[in-house]
Write a structure and sequence with these properties.
Elements: H1 9-60, E1 64-69, E2 72-77, E3 85-86, H2 90-93, E4 98-101, E5 106-108, E6 120-125, E7 144-148, E8 154-157
Antiparallel strand pairs: 1-2, 1-5, 2-3, 4-6, 6-7, 7-8
Length: 172
């Protein structure tokens, strides 16, 4: 008789236990990664919308307005209902990320400046994910901001970083 080779029930149970343990250890990191990826996607989409509106205003030397509807946006020439560009539907693709802006809609003039002149801050967070690192009390999630200077300069920044870091919202 030849000896049987194979996996015993104990070996199989041990392998399943080890795989379950590894999965349990990596799941929180994976959830955090997904959450931060959704925030970054919405932030980059909003930044693209702002750049499109500013570029169109300069190109046509006229007022162009960007309007946020949740995390979606549209760019339209002033006094027109014709949509120039529209986002790809982040509200359905990134359901947990939210966008809050200090000014909506945002209008750019022919020089690419915000009209009327003001600094606009756009906060991108995930309220279902808890607090941002920069919040009080500090959380575990890395949120992002977009700062639109009255002169038209756009800046994607991380409010949790110290002012000495170039990616900080406080850095000059």
């Amino acid at each position: 008789m030849t000896p049987c080779s194979g996996v015993t029930l104990i070996e199989l149970m041990l392998a399943i236990f080890i795989m379950s343990l590894l999965l349990a250890l990596t799941l929180p990191s994976y959830s955090s990664w997904i959450q931060e990826n959704q925030i970054r996607t919405v932030a980059e989409s909003a930044l693209n919308g702002l750049q499109s509106a500013r570029d169109e205003a300069v190109k046509t030397n006229s007022l162009v307005t960007l309007t946020f509807n949740g995390t979606d946006w549209t760019v339209t020439p002033d006094n027109s209902t014709t949509v120039i560009t529209q986002s790809s539907g982040n509200a359905t693709q990134e359901p947990n990320a939210t966008l809050q802006t200090s000014l909506n809609p945002i209008t750019f003039n022919g020089l690419g400046q915000v009209s009327p002149p003001s600094t606009v801050t756009i906060n991108i967070t995930d309220p279902k994910g808890g607090n941002c690192l920069s919040a009080s009390p500090p959380g575990t999630m890395r949120c992002l901001n977009i700062v639109v200077q009255s002169g038209g300069a756009l800046r994607l920044c991380d409010p949790a970083l110290p002012a000495t870091n170039a990616q900080s919202c406080e850095a000059s």
